[in-house]
Amino acid sequence: MFGDPLFFNKIAGAILVACLLVMVTGFAAHLLYHPSELKEPAFVISTETAAAAPVAAAAPIGPEPVLAMLAAADVATGAKLAKKKCGACHGFAKGGKKKVGPNLWNVVGGPKAKSAGFAYSAALKEIGGNWAFADLNKFLFKPKAFAKGTKMNFRGFKKVTDRASIIRFLHSKSDLPIPLP
Ligand code: HEC
Hints:
The protein has helices spanning 7-33, 47-58, 75-85, 122-127, 133-141, 143-146, 160-172. It is mainly α. It has a domain at 63-172: Cytochrome c-like domain (Cytochrome Bc1 Complex, Chain D, domain 2, Orthogonal Bundle). The mean pLDDT is 86.
């Protein structure tokens, strides 16, 4: 057999044919089965969504609306709350001075971050617009969520009745209060 002058050529030929066969079958299989890549994973294992979902389902996002409660809310109750919860940082009197926070006379319905002489955070200044009842409701629910980076270090009122009475009180601190909703 080694006498065959083409012996090594034959071996090399056989190997070549074998390689070709492997390539062709691979190619054919690919054509037949179309293994296409998924654009997105078939299912996502995310601890984040799994943990967040039940909470999101249980509690509505954002604060409960306050508008419908304002007319009936009690100014005196709001005044008491304000003294206890805001008084360390805010004055409410006309022409009153700033403390840790700006004076809040005439704040309801007026422009945000505009009390003279107070150095507001960029966070509050950037929000812009007026202090509408609905904005105050959100801000007093969770100040740091409404104005991310605000200097106002207050946790907020979770109870909608607390927010209603405090807004009603703030509303009374003006010569010309805007109409109640
Ligand atoms: C620990 C101090 C502190 C407490 C307590 C606090 N505030 Fe403030 N408040 C601030 C500061 C500081 C600012 C300015 C925020 C900024 O510039 O980001 C502010 C801003 C505000 C503004 C916006 C004023 C404007 O001119 O745009 C309102 C409204 C407000 N506070 C209401 C309240 C009410 C109502 C309470 C009580 C429930 C309260 N704050 C409790 C410190 C406080």
